[in-house]
Design goal:
alpha/beta, 7-stranded mixed beta sheet, 43% helix, binds S-adenosylmethionine
Length: 300
């Protein structure tokens, strides 16, 4: 699947299926002996998708699965802690951009009166709601789904859904940026900045220059091709190449951009984050952690 400016997707298609890949990683962590978090809903999403014909992009590739699961575990826990800390500082309005199958609105201990707004493509949020409803899962706080493409006028949709720009907001963008063009990424941050009252907090998974580089892409494609070949040889379902969904072009440095606009910024790189949560990348793996960093910012 190649990208177009107004493409859309269901959960098992193209960009939508990347949310299932993350859910698959969360199943692995939840089922581990000492999980850093438990996401009991991740199983339900994967089961429903498999029943609809989806197969994991990691196939039977144990090494890739282990590396990705360690990364996703650390990333998930990091964003969990970010939201919990924001709540402990009184923030009760949360916006999860590109929420996918994230279940924080259902499983985190939100402070009283919190509203969580989730933005993602309509069919992705519809699948999520369908599966959670089928399992009688109830949000742990106020929850508002805002089904919209993040390249459209989502600030208007958010306001229409009840969002109050005069209240400090806690924002996240996890697993999103490579799926936006560089120009759409810039627009996203302009809009977040405009909608953020003083005291707002933002956490972003930012992708570094190696991620977007020709060399970085060639290395990842080689590994992906090996996994695809192994799946084919074993007669397993065709694996998709996720790199075809990314916009590979130079980006604005998120941390620098925010720092220049009244945001106090701290950054941690993926390997340090994984070490912090004791989910280090497997030692025998190639390229075990992606070239990402986690940019936390507070608007002054
Ligand atoms: N943040 C979630 C998580 O970590 O579980 C999902 C991450 S998944 C890798 C990427 C998500 O971004 C998908 O749910 C996809 O639908 C969403 N996404 C990407 N581009 C989008 C766009 N233009 N509009 C709305 N959602 C988008």
């Amino acid at each position: 699947m190649s990208r177009t400016d107004d493409d859309s997707w269901a959960i098992t298609e193209g960009v939508g299926a990347t949310a299932l890949g993350v859910a698959r990683g969360r199943v692995t962590e939840t089922d581990s002996v000492w999980p850093v978090y438990a996401d009991p809903y991740a199983h339900y999403f994967v089961e429903a998708a498999v029943a609809a014909g989806w197969s994991s992009p990691f196939g039977e590739d144990g090494e890739r699965m282990r590396a990705m699961s360690a990364y996703i575990a650390s990333r998930t826990k990091h964003f969990d802690d970010f939201f919990t800390t924001a709540g402990a500082n009184g923030l009760d309005q949360a916006v999860i951009l590109a929420a996918g199958l994230d279940t924080r609105a259902w499983r985190l201990p939100w402070i009283s009166g919190t509203t969580v707004y989730e933005l993602d493509q309509p069919k992705v949020l519809a699948f999520k709601q369908r599966v959670l409803t089928a399992h009688a899962a109830r949000p742990a706080t106020g929850y508002v789904a805002v089904p919209i493409d993040l390249r459209k006028d989502w600030p208007e949709a958010l306001r229409h859904a009840g969002f109050d720009a005069s209240t400090p907001t806690v924002w996240s963008a996890e697993g999103l940026l490579p799926y936006l063009s560089a120009a759409d990424q810039d627009l996203l941050f302009e809009r977040i900045d405009t909608l953020s009252a003083a005291g707002s907090r933002l956490d972003v998974e930012a992708f570094g220059p190696d991620f977007y580089s020709t060399e970085g892409l060639a290395r990842r494609r080689e590994r992906i091709e090996r996994a695809r070949g192994a799946a084919r040889a074993a007669g397993r379902p065709e694996l998709h190449d996720p790199s075809r969904l990314w916009y590979l072009e130079p980006r604005t440095n998120v941390a620098q951009w925010l720092a220049a606009r009244d945001w106090e910024v701290t950054t941690i790189d993926a390997p340090d984050l994984m070490a912090h949560y004791q989910r280090p990348a497997p030692e025998d793996g190639e390229d075990p952690a992606p070239d990402t960093s986690f940019v936390e910012a507070r608007k002054t």
